[in-house]
Specification:
alpha/beta; Aminopeptidase; five-stranded mixed beta sheet; 10 strands; globular; binds zinc ion
């Protein structure tokens, strides 16, 4: 599977445009809103400076290393260990999250940044488990998260912990630079990290949809496409 390569902080939930270097309301939203105004009156503009993006990239890399260092080879998966780390990061950021344990050692974690309901939610989806390793084929420890010559090596670096780290960073950036700055999202942005994608499939997104559909109901979702 090939993940998307780039973090998109907006995720379609807000409109990014070049502006004054901080989160502001649009000219329209600064005027007194009336009920007859079109939905774009709720639009928040965001423009982060280069330093902020550089720090965000470094933070994403650290989160990815941390994800890789937690062995979630499936079977058995043991994704709960990684889910707990993600829960701690969301708690620290003040983002509401729900941690579920569908079976012993398996996990689903769903976090949500509420929007104003103008549009339906956007779901950022990734899975926490990885396939097994063949140690003889590796030149580095697959669970170290080593960086060599500008590349990060590790089991799951691409499938799917890279996606996971990017989704996490998108949530953190939205919280810090939109919500905490007094801005508004036009739709909820929902982060979901699931188990059991690489083998079995019993305790993954299917379980989540069947048992907690209200947590992940969305108009759009970002997923890792099959090649
Ligand atoms: Zn995968």
């Amino acid at each position: 599977m090939t993940p998307r390569r780039r973090a998109a902080p907006a995720g379609g939930a807000l409109r990014a445009r070049k502006g004054k270097g901080r989160t502001t309301g649009s000219a329209k939203s600064r005027s007194v809103p009336t009920r007859s105004e079109p939905p774009e009156s709720a639009t928040t503009t965001i423009d982060l400076d280069v330093r902020t993006w550089t720090l965000a990239a470094a933070e994403t890399l650290e989160h990815l290393k941390r994800c890789i260092r937690i062995n979630t080879v499936n079977p058995p998966g043991n994704e709960i260990a990684l889910a707990r780390v993600l829960a701690g990061i969301f708690d620290g950021a003040g983002i509401h999250r729900t941690l579920l344990e569908p079976a012993t050692g398996r996990a689903a974690i769903v976090a949500r940044i509420p929007g104003d309901g103008t549009q339906q939610p956007l779901l950022l989806l990734a899975h926490m488990d990885v396939v097994g390793v063949e140690p003889a084929e590796w030149s580095v420890d697959p669970f170290e998260g080593a960086v060599r010559d500008g590349y990060l090596y590790g089991r799951g670096a691409i499938d799917d912990k890279g996606m996971l780290a990017v989704n996490l960073q998108a949530m953190l950036l939205l919280k810090r630079h939109v919500i905490d700055a007094g801005g508004t999202l036009t739709r909820d942005v929902v982060f979901a990290a699931t188990s059991d994608e690489e083998a079995g499939g019993l305790w993954g997104i299917d379980w989540l949809v069947a048992n907690h559909p209200e947590l992940v109901r969305a108009e759009y979702a970002t997923v890792t496409p099959r090649p």
